[in-house]
Amino acid sequence: MAIASPSTPSFSASFCCTWTESIRSPTRSPSFISFTRRLQPHPPLTRRLAISSRLNSSKPSGAGGFISPDNGGGSEHIQYELYHKFSSPQRRRLGSPVFVTLPVDSVSTGGQVRRRKVMAQSFKALSAAGVEGVVVEVWWGLVERDEPRVYNWQGYLDLVALAKRCGLKVRAVMAFHQCATGPDDPHWIPLPLWVLQEIDKDPDLAYSDRFGRRNMEYISLGCDILPVLRGRSPIQAYTDFMRNFRDTFRPFLGVVITGIQVGMGPAGELRYPSCPTQKLTWAWRTRELGEFQCYDKYMLASLNACAREIGMREWGDGGPIGAGNLMQNPEHTEFFRSKDGSWTRPYGKFFLEWYSGMLLLHGDRICREAETVFRGTEVNTSAKVAGIHWHYGTESHPSELTAGYYNTSTRDGYLPIARMFGRYGFTMCCTCFEMQDELERQMNPVGSPEGFLRQLLLAARVCDIPLEGENCATSLDDDSFQQVLKMSKFYSNGLEKPSFSFNFMRMDKNMFEYQNWVRFTRFVRQMSDANIFRANLSSGGDINLSSMLDATKVGLALAYS
What we know:
single chain; alpha/beta; two-stranded antiparallel ribbon; 19 helices
């Protein structure tokens, strides 16, 4: 049940700076899992910057035919040139590399590469355009689908081999989450079937909100270290998956596979499913507050243990009341309102620090395991933070709070995440790079994607961690590409060794329409060194991008429909 926000004893909000877990016997009740909070000094920072929760908005910048990368009988010659010219170390050290995320259904349920011929043609086109590589989501629900520890990597092995032949690098996403909304969705990929069977036996393995609605996108982090998956904990299952991936793909690691992004929640992002992923794309328009996901028995046991530890047992019975409904104006709610809202009171601070602290602990556990698994493989590890920006202009930032980011007008919620990534040598991935405040505020005056992103970029700079950018929606207009360039420069300017790359979301039929392709290739050149790009392009003699693309023997755009 939800509880009120008592105005009783004063309570210090500083106890959640660092969480150290005390793990007891996994056979005991979850209530025995306790967390001791200890303030520890952070490592010295090599660079100090002032960070404000509210950062400057920006001023905005001012879209026929299909193309194909197939060039007939010269494809093998092109492939050779692409591999030896475009994959040279000299080119890859310059500028900011661009990767392209593949379609969700690139590998079928049976473990085969879908549309193999079209995929090969697409890879040649991407390589010719100067794209560094592709991002491949490696779905837990496909690879370990039927039985625990029984893995089928064949489709992904074929994709990686194809990328290698075309001179492309690969970033592999360890996707431990569900894709799409249900069996009727053509992109539906659930959690492994054996995991769903365990959830059927124990529904509390799934997140739950105050209304008892279950979210099946990702296993509740409340049971991270409990042996609830046929004798293994979720963290152990994720680790075994990553270890088997490492052993299977070892010949490619550091050579073709240069990056591993580790999923940490719904949509692969380090967050709670406060708003279903399928609604997140448009949640900023409806300004949804989200729901706190703390009502499964494992999360409640942890909350109760922490409340007892500070002598406030009544604070451990559930999440806050007065948080309103999903579509309510936060100023009309008891918890989120700016003036004297419960989020500013002792109970609110206690709850939000516990809630965000659990998310940080979850991220820390996975980072630690991933760093151990991939140590010595010469691949870069990364993790993703969600772009929740539609209440950034308010005092309480309610949609960020329900997602697990304790970020308000008076508290920086992203710096602790960046510090955590820095401890394990992780790159931080974040989205919204193409979004502009002036356009967004026409529909949502309290949102600020640029303000949110600037805060995140400054956190990355302070912690001296590399950055991967992403677009939120598949935008192929010049204004969106120019906005990406602008925000990438915001991160990189002034750094001695900036490390920025961009993942374009995602390859589809629209990308290969002629005008869209022209804009995209121009963007890739702008992200890299244009002079070097042109020199490499012309050094192969008759190899010319435009002439290759004009030979439209196969309509790629039609092939993707």
